[in-house]
Amino acid sequence: MSDRYLPSLRQFLTHPSGTEGPDPELVFLIEDIASACRAIGNQVRYAVFDGLTGTAGEVNVQGEAQKKLDVAADETFERICASSRRLAALVSEEREEITWLKEPEAGDFLLFYDPLDGSSNLDVNLSVGSIFSICQVDSENASDVLKPGTRQICAGYAIYGPSAMLVLTTGAGVNGFSYDDRTGDFRLTHPGLTIPAETSEFAINASRYHHWDEPVRAYVDDCLAGRRGPRGRDFNMRWTASMVADVHRILMRGGVFLYPVDAANRDTGGKLRLLYEANPMALIVENAGGAATSGRNRILDEPPTSHHQRIAVMLGSRDEVAQLEDYHRRMTGN
Ligand code: AHM
Ligand code: MG
């Protein structure tokens, strides 16, 4: 066995590289989230033995059939994180309403999460994950959870794949921790993740081609035209239908991910949710040197108007995201 020193999540969080010590309450909350993710990873792995496969028979606020594991993962987040002394509220994809845990006080935490993202992949045993983000309450009794992404103090995701990983940013840089079930720890195996500025790989659900707006269609057409087309090089394409898996691949080797607003989802504002999918992934990607846009605006600057709001998402390698913004500028005039 390798004796490579790989700090645990606790060791990493309590020994920051900066001079200022970490807020212990924030460390406890991040550790609780990591515990929830570890438990959810086990629920996913043992679902077939524990009667946790299939649908729960309910339709969630998004109008989607909830899986038993969606419900179990949501309950696991609450069960493990709710006792955190300074956690004021939970905002979950699986709950119509905000769950208030205490009277909000200035500096208290707000936890936004998608407990099990990509759950359509559960039946086919592909990677799924959990996405989360933490913001802070502004002032006494402030019950406003509609914070722009720039206000996030921490964002991350767990991926339940061939190995379980937690990828985290608390402001400076992005770090990846792999779960070691021999010790029960997440350990720092992927420090300082960065996304290359250039890429020749894109990810989009191409079955929606006929719904796309002109800028997205032109961008994909030009990528597909390869070295003889306007982009002058061949592109590769990947789509897992699991945002966590697609973003994880981009953190590992670059690429761009697109889930645009199109003719079929315009009424709802797109597919992906701003507060607990787009914002956390945008912060992770930016802190790894990438970029995240709605096509017109930086996602992190987008002012939320409701807690289940949806938004167009294009993120990943910086130069390619700039290309996408350019296609939008040229073809829509704004
Ligand atoms: P979910 O939160 O209900 O799982 O939906 C989000 C998922 C993303 O993980 C993924 O990128 C997208 O939906 C896949 O959509 P599609 O089914 O159009 O491929
Ligand atoms: Mg989701």
Keywords:
334 residues; alpha+beta; Fructose-1,6-Bisphosphatase, Chain A, domain 1; D-Maltodextrin-Binding Protein, domain 2; 2 domains; 8-stranded mixed β-sheet; 5-stranded mixed β-sheet
Account of the protein in words:
This protein is of the alpha+beta class. The protein has two domains: 3-190, Fructose-1,6-Bisphosphatase, Chain A, domain 1; 201-332, D-Maltodextrin-Binding Protein, domain 2. It is 29% helix and 24% strand. The chain has seven helices and 17 strands. The protein has helices spanning 9-14, 24-50, 68-81, 214-224, 243-253, 274-287, 318-332; strands at residues 55-59, 65-67, 87-92, 99-100, 109-117, 128-136, 154-160, 164-169, 175-180, 185-190, 201-203, 236-237, 256-259, 272-273, 291-293, 310-311, 313-316. An eight-stranded mixed sheet has the order 4-3-5-6-7-8-9-10, with helices on both faces. A five-stranded mixed sheet has the order 12-11-13-17-15, with helices on both faces. Helix 2 packs antiparallel against helix 3 and helix 4 packs across helix 7. The radius of gyration is 20 Å and the shape is globular. The model has no long low-confidence stretch (mean pLDDT 94). The protein binds 2,5-anhydro-1,6-di-O-phosphono-D-mannitol and magnesium ion. The site of 2,5-anhydro-1,6-di-O-phosphono-D-mannitol has 13 residues, from strand 5.
